[in-house]
Amino acid sequence: MSLGTGPRRIRALAALAVLVVAWRVVAIARIGPVEALRPLAPAAGRHEVRGVFHVHTRLSHDGRAEVGEIVDAARQAGIEFVYLTEHNNFGIADTGQEGWKDGVLLLSGNEAGTCDSFDPRTNQCVGGHVLLLGPPKLTEPLTNKKSEELAELTGRAGGLAFAAHPGNRRVPWRGGEGGLAGAEMLSFWSAYEDLGWTRIVPALACYPLNATYAMNLITLSAGPDLAAFDAMCRRRRLTGIAGADAHANIKVTQSRSVAFPSMSSFFRMMSTHLLLDGPFTRQLDADRKLLLGALSKGRAYAAWDSLADASGFAFTAQIRDTIHPMGSVLPRQWMTLRVTAPEAPGARVTLLRDGAPVAFADGASLVYQTTADGAFRCEVSLPFATPFLGLQERHPWILSSPIYVGDETEDGELQSTDCSPLAFPLSVCNPPFPVSNLKPGKPTHPCAPPPPDFCFWSSSEPPLSSIPSSSLTPSSTSSPTRRSTGTGRDCRTGATTASRR
Ligand SMILES: [Zn+2]
Ligand SMILES: [Zn+2]
Question: For residue 14, how far is its CA from the centre of ligand 2 (angstroms)?
Answer without folding.
Answer: 45
